[in-house]
Design a protein that fits this description.
By secondary structure, the chain is α/β, with parallel strands linked by helices. It has five helices and twelve strands. It folds into two domains: 98 residues, Translation factors (Elongation Factor Tu (Ef-tu), domain 3); 126 residues, Rossmann fold.
């Protein structure tokens, strides 16, 4: 397996806040001067002060930027209706706020030497570690890697990184496939409904040889895992990360 990256603990300030969707923001932290290194797909622990109770919440967030972009760290956070940390991070954080961060952690890692054919299957904010891997493919110029993304969202407005994913489709080695499960805009040309075996068979080439990376809510990940194993994919070729 790959060598572990050293776990660092540091403070970093928010230098930019990007609105991704009505419920999702990306916080960009300045980490220039910190020798922070990670593998595509890993996460950090973020300490979030919670003023209502005075406690400090610790939350795991996948890293969104490619490891080749050394001077900043991007965390994309979706607000959950009853969330504490996610509400503070999406509604109240301002540029200049400083947080304690510790990482990297996690075994949900993709590197080109693991497989040059890779399929990413995500739902909602489960896109974040998969986007880190896609950005790495682009930043590192890995033209020999063939990547397919199947990405499920409830509505068009909730597609995180929508414009960047559209730009990625220009690369001949990257294929982006969207499906919407609830609200479908007029003129929508993608799929509708949940990801299903027919969709996978139609969009994914070389089924048995790909590595599969699944990320999203637990039920989504379990359902797609069952589909893939029913289609004859070896369990060893399926990597999973569940987002509560």
């Amino acid at each position: 397996m790959v060598d572990k990256k050293p776990v660092l603990e540091f403070s970093a300030s928010v230098v930019k806040i990007l609105t991704e969707t009505p419920t999702t923001k990306t916080l960009v932290f300045d980490i220039s001067g910190i020798n922070f290194d990670f593998y595509p797909g890993q996460y950090v622990m973020l300490e979030v002060p919670y003023p209502q109770t005075g406690e400090v919440l610790k939350r795991a967030y996948s890293i969104a930027n490619s490891p080749l972009r050394k001077n900043y760290l991007e965390l994309t956070i979706k607000r959950t209706p009853n969330g504490k940390a996610s509400v503070i991070l999406t509604d109240r954080v301002k540029v200049g706020d400083t947080f304690r961060i510790k990482g990297p952690y996690g075994k949900f890692i993709w590197l080109p030497e693991m497989s040059e054919k890779v399929v990413f299957i995500g739902a909602g904010s489960g896109i974040v570690p998969l986007m880190c891997m896609l950005r790495y493919i682009v930043d590192a110029g890995l033209h020999h890697v063939k990547a397919t993304l199947l990405y499920s969202n409830t509505s068009y407005e909730e597609i995180i990184y929508r414009e960047e994913l559209e730009r990625m489709e220009r690369y001949s080695n990257i294929k982006i496939v969207h499906t919407l499960t609830r609200s479908i805009p007029e003129g929508w040309r993608g799929y509708t409904g949940r990801i299903n075996p027919d969709m996978i068979l139609k969009e994914v080439d070389d089924m048995p040889v790909n590595l599969y990376y699944l990320c999203g809510p637990p039920k989504f990940v379990d359902d797609v895992t069952s589909m893939l194993t029913d289609m004859g994919i070896d369990k060893e070729r399926i990597k999973k990360e569940k987002y509560e």
